[in-house]
TrEMBL record:
Residues 117-157 are annotated as: Disordered. One of its GO terms (molecular function) is hydrolase activity. This is Alpha/beta hydrolase fold-3 domain-containing protein. InterPro entries: AB_hydrolase_3, AB_hydrolase_fold, Carboxylest/Gibb_receptor. Residues 170-418 form the Alpha/beta hydrolase fold-3 domain. It comes from the Eukaryota. Belongs to the 'GDXG' lipolytic enzyme family. Coiled coil: none annotated. It holds the Pfam family Abhydrolase_3. PANTHER family: ARYLACETAMIDE DEACETYLASE (PTHR23024), CARBOXYLESTERASE 11-RELATED (PTHR23024:SF639).
Length: 453
């Protein structure tokens, strides 16, 4: 059973959640805001950290002009290792990001000109030499996305030329019952940093629009829009590299004018979109499953992005026919069934609310595409979560059509036990992240499926 502290906090959490939902019900009477909101004022937020002081650098990017859709990118320090040394110890020539910043500040534009000259000599066939990693220096930093803060951004910027280590991409959707949570909350920031390190992957956390300001299907559309954005990023980066290799000055000027301003350098330098994992938490798992289905339907239209697997952490599934856990654990810890129904009504709208809505019930008839086409799906469930049984039933249906769909069930655990702010630093939360990493590497390893349970 959960500790006394967890039980007490659960009571306090439910009280606050009920107040928030009631406030949202009042707000739902107002007109919808097309721009929307992606976070609530009362939630604690972790600022973006552009350096690798804790092993992961982050930056926030607004990716849609017409909505508030944004993402936070988590880049693990392992991306800075040389490709052939990636699996070994940290290379001796890699220094801290702070040291690189100080050296560049002292050297000024002269060092940048020297780097350009070195790149030109390598193209001419000269023997390459070791170059120090560097930071961007405002307007002089090359490859710096204008969306990342312009001249004021002092985070890591990839040096031009040379071989770079490519990492898989994990697209993460936070929880919060459709009405709260954000990609930059303290708990979500810590969780994504943990996943980036353990999975050795770039994590793209999505700040989708929240209800009731933006009801269904806004959050789902935002999720798939991010996948399309990743495909666009990959294609723009490839176009830029192609023009550079061909040395067509006129065409390169066009790319610089219309492409470089929107190319995200971290993704261009280090992301391998052909190894893309979807990871959803609670209601975010519903979004991940929707995006996976849309990716199957889109097929090659998303190239070079390929969804190779998905992770559903205690998905927010419901249905008209109650399961055993929904009856027995209806008043469970933190998120009980009554309050979750209120959250669903705020998201789907009272008039359209249906327990067997295709985005609410994964086993609803007529839900496409065929389950046999779905990517491998890892499902994480908690023993004391009333939503547990339906998530397990969905996993069983996937396995019946030969989809790799294991279930990890954690004893004495509650809903969001690995991602909730008060529980995220517990040993169980750490163990869950490590278990997820083992399974994810099964599908992201370039050497094959050597990781298995």
């Amino acid at each position: 059973m959960p500790t006394v502290a967890v039980k007490l906090y659960s009571v306090f959490f439910k009280f606050l959640l009920k107040q928030r939902l009631q406030n949202r019900i009042q707000d739902s009477l107002q007109e919808s805001d097309p721009f929307g909101v992606t976070s609530r004022p009362g939630e604690s937020v972790a600022a973006a950290n552009p350096s690798f002081s804790d092993g992961v650098a982050t930056k926030d990017i607004h990716i849609d002009t017409f909505t508030s859709l944004s993402v936070r990118i988590f880049l693990p320090e392992s991306a800075l290792a040389e490709p052939e040394l990636a699996r070994g110890s940290k290379p001796h020539h890699l220094k801290s990001i702070t040291d690189s910043t100080n050296k560049l500040a002292q050297a000024g534009p002269g060092l940048i000109r020297a780097e350009k000259a070195s790149l030109a000599s390598r193209r001419a066939g000269a023997t390459p030499r070791e170059e120090p990693r560097r930071n961007s220096l405002g307007p002089t930093g090359e490859g710096l996305s204008s969306a990342s803060g312009g001249g004021g951004y002092l985070g890591y910027s990839p040096a031009p030329g040379g071989r770079r280590r490519k990492l898989p991409v994990i697209v993460q959707f936070h929880g919060g019952g459709w009405v709260s949570g954000s990609s930059d909350s303290v708990a979500n920031d810590l969780f994504c940093r943990r996943i980036a390190k353990l999975c050795d992957a770039i994590v793209v956390a999505v700040s989708y629009r929240l209800a009731p300001e933006n009801q269904y299907p806004a959050a789902f559309e935002d999720g798939f829009k991010v996948l399309n954005w990743l495909a666009k990023q990959a294609n723009l980066a490839e176009c830029s590299r192609s023009m550079e290799v061909r040395k067509l000055d006129a065409h390169k000027a066009i790319v610089d004018s219309f492409g470089a301003a929107v190319v995200e350098p971290w993704l261009a330098a280090h992301a391998n979109p052909s190894r893309c994992i979807l990871l959803g938490v609670s209601c975010g798992a519903n979004i991940a499953d929707y995006v996976a289905r849309k990716a199957v339907e889109a097929g090659k239209l998303l190239d070079p992005v390929k969804v190779v697997a998905q992770v559903l952490m205690y998905p927010f599934f419901i249905g008209s026919v109650p399961t055993h856990s929904e009856i027995k654990l209806a008043k469970s810890y933190f998120y009980d069934k009554a309050m979750c129904m209120l959250a669903w009504k705020l998201f789907l709208n009272e008039e359209k609310f249906n327990l067997d809505h295709p985005e609410a019930n994964p086993l609803a008839p007529g839900r496409g595409p065929p389950l046999k086409l779905m990517p491998p799906t890892l499902t994480v469930v908690a023993e004391l979560d009333w939503m547990r049984d339906r998530a397990i039933a969905y996993s069983e249906q996937l396995r019946k059509v030969n989809v790799d769909a294991p279930v990890l069930e954690y004893k004495d655990a509650v809903h969001e036990f690995a991602t909730l702010d008060v529980l995220i630093k517990t040993p169980e939360a750490q163990a869950c992240a490590e278990d997820i990493a083992i399974w994810v590497k099964k599908y992201t390893s370039l050497r094959g499926h050597e990781f298995s349970y």
